[in-house]
Amino acid sequence: MNRLVGSVALVTGGGSGIGAAACFALAREGAAVSVVDVREDAALSIAREITTLGGRAIAHAADVRVESEIKRVVEQSADTLGGLHVVFANAGINGMQCPIEEMTYEEWRATIDTNLTGTFLTVKPSIPIMRAGGGGSIIITASLNGNRIFSLPGYSAYSSAKAAQAAFGRMAAAELARWNIRVNTILPGGVRTNIGERTWRRNLEEITWNVKMPDRFPPLHGRPAEPSEIADAVVFLASAESGYITGSEIVVDAGLSLIRG
What we know:
The protein is α/β, with parallel strands linked by helices. The chain has one domain: 3-Layer(aba) Sandwich (Rossmann fold), CATH 3.40.50.720. It has seven helices and nine strands. The mean pLDDT is 95.
């Protein structure tokens, strides 16, 4: 339980779901954690719990869509905690699910700006800090949607953003390898989180394909993942155990995408 002793990790969307689970998992392995969330109370709650459990954590409120906010948080986190070695660009929303012809420009932008632009704005100010510290690991939460799965109705904006995140991860991996900065992307399947709170749907009936899945689905375990099971992959990619891995997309879906494409 000490794979990350001496490391500093920053997690966006750290106030709930996969992000919160990753904060706890990284802290258990010895990392000091900056919990970043658009909701200050959520970030504070996770940071306090980590501290109560004996870990080291701070909380920051930032909207990853706003360059000045996330840049300030990245720099303050590194100054306060003593560097930056792991960046988990995890903040994201499902946004509006609806037919393409009905989606407004504002709805499109809300999803793209949070999921894709937010990843860019998180990674950009982290690079010079990580480079000065001798390298590190950047991990991006993308999705099966847009990368392995194209059958869920109304996910045009979400899937486009998630496909672009994976492409951005590969480009960043090639660019940053010279400075010993690794970049990998996680593609989760179904996960039990509260992302549904930031999901809106309308008029999906006419664009839904009636595809019946087996009774046991996904094939392995037959249930959605717990956030902690995604966090296990984050810890692996943050640690030296994945030191020869960069530019990869790690599918964590219990075989879901083997059946539903």
